[in-house]
Design brief:
Order of helices and strands: HEEHHHH
Structural class: mainly alpha
Number of helices: 5
Mean pLDDT: 80
Distance between the termini: 25 Å
Strand content: 5-15%
Largest sheet: 2 strands, antiparallel
């Protein structure tokens, strides 16, 4: 990974940790939901998208955590495909957190606090896809 992409990946990791989600009668950064997921008994884990945001927080936090771990590993291993999979996993987690954006004010707030993550991750994804496409194009031209 080129140094400018490594900085972008670290910025994505930081912004994905500070996405604010509503839990109960309060709001916490998503990193607390990721840490509390194994020990919290009140978080229901469900992969179905329900109208209740609190049921999908655990699934969203799990997808975000898996994506963050993959992205962190890919910054050291320099694996392009792993970075792309990590971003897709993080997008799935973010979608689980904001799927009720038009019917729930809490989801709209989560989307607003997660928009820096979304913009940065789309930028890294487009850079990586462009790099992958150019790499394959130069490999074909050399043959």
């Amino acid at each position: 990974m080129i140094n400018q992409y490594r900085g972008l990946a670290i910025a994505i990791l930081i912004t994905s940790c500070i996405i604010i989600v509503g839990m109960g009668h309060g709001a916490v950064p998503v990193i607390f939901a990721e840490v509390a997921f194994p020990i919290a008994k009140t978080l229901k884990f469900s992969l179905t998208l329900t109208n209740n945001d609190e049921d999908s927080i655990a699934a969203g936090a799990l997808f975000l955590l898996i994506g963050q771990l993959l992205l962190f590993i890919s910054t050291h291993k320099l694996k392009l495909i792993m970075r792309l999979v990590a971003l897709v996993m993080m997008w799935i987690g973010f979608f689980y957190l904001v799927h009720n954006i038009f019917t729930n004010g809490g989801s709209a707030f989560t989307f607003a606090t997660g928009s820096p993550f979304l913009f940065l991750s789309v930028a890294l994804f487009s850079f990586d896809v462009r790099q992958y496409w150019l790499q394959n194009k130069t490999d074909i031209e050399q043959e």
